[in-house]
Amino acid sequence: MPPFQTDILIIGAGPAGLSTALHLHRQESTRGLGIIVLEKAVHPRPKLCGGGITRPGLQVLAQLGLQLDVPHIPIREMHIVHGERRFVLRDDPVFVVTHRPEFDHWLLQQAEQRDITIHQDEPARYLEINDEGVRVRTARGTYLARVLVAADGSKSWVRQKLKWGERGRSARLLEVLSPAADADKSFFKDGIAVFDFTATRRKLQGYTWEFPTLVHNIPWLNRGIFDSRVRPEQERVKLLALLQGILPLHARHDRVQGHPIFLFHPGFSLARPRLLLVGDAAGADALLGEGIAFALWYGEAAARELAQAFASDDFSFSGYRDRVLQHTVLKQLAGRYHAARFSYGLQRFPWLAENIWALAPLAFRLVGLLRPEYIPLSQRRLIRLPTTPF
After folding, report:
1. Which residues of the chain have pLDDT under 70?
2. Rounded distance between C-alpha atoms, residue 374 and residue 380, angstroms
3. How far apart are CA 12 and CA 278, in angstroms?
């Protein structure tokens, strides 16, 4: 069987890989290039993820001419809790919650409708990159491409095969889906999501969460715990015990699932000649573990880098890391990395951490005024951020 030949081969049909393909298709300068997306699973496939899409994520979908057309819940109140303190961010919406397998399947369908070639159920087994291009083998054949985009997630097969020199850090995450109980109705009626950082007092480098979701249009409550581990020298807490402690009795026996999240580091390389990393393969938000919005914007940055490479016939991708670090949205990843190192490092100084949390409302207002792209909510509502005790 002759090899499949293409200009751009994308491994991974999640938000980052599909966004890259959709942006390439939309750009005039790259519209005629051959694009093939390889996906090891078949959509809709299981995917552990809260499914939250923040305003920047909705913005990039709109930029692609896409209107979110899967069941979702608008979150109008985001409660940020630390002990006796509760800070509320309000907007309509602050973010939306989708069921991740349904969202990814919908995005794949949008790509297929634009005649983007996607081969599902085809995991890559062999990879070779040289000065001439890229060779990838699967059980079904060989692919020859001029460049490769690795969009294959936190456990990136591409990174592993190439023995990427920078190992990086992985956050830990556990989550559980529970059928919505009568006590949970306010989460759905008022669109409330709770992010509770109280467990940082118990050495957790992260938070616990509760928010509503829809699975095949049936209401469920998503609960979980995120541990950044951006400070590996500090104590490693027992996540399951912490999570079980916040679950109501009716949810404690539901199935708890977990997965790692590869974290963005501003000093790491994001490309090699003929290869770009995007999405979680490049690194996710170290502060909150946010993934979908950043993955979609990685696709936009990668498409611009690819357009420049094909126009200049230079596939070194030497400027890609700077493109990411200077990108309007993606540059927040570096800021969030440093914020995570600072805030989760405060566990060594409990008194200082408590005083900083007391100033949290002022910090939100200042960030909203000075860097509105970091908190893309209505300025009026952000300035009136209410503070109410537990």
Report:
1. 183, 249-251, 253, 378-390
2. 15
3. 10
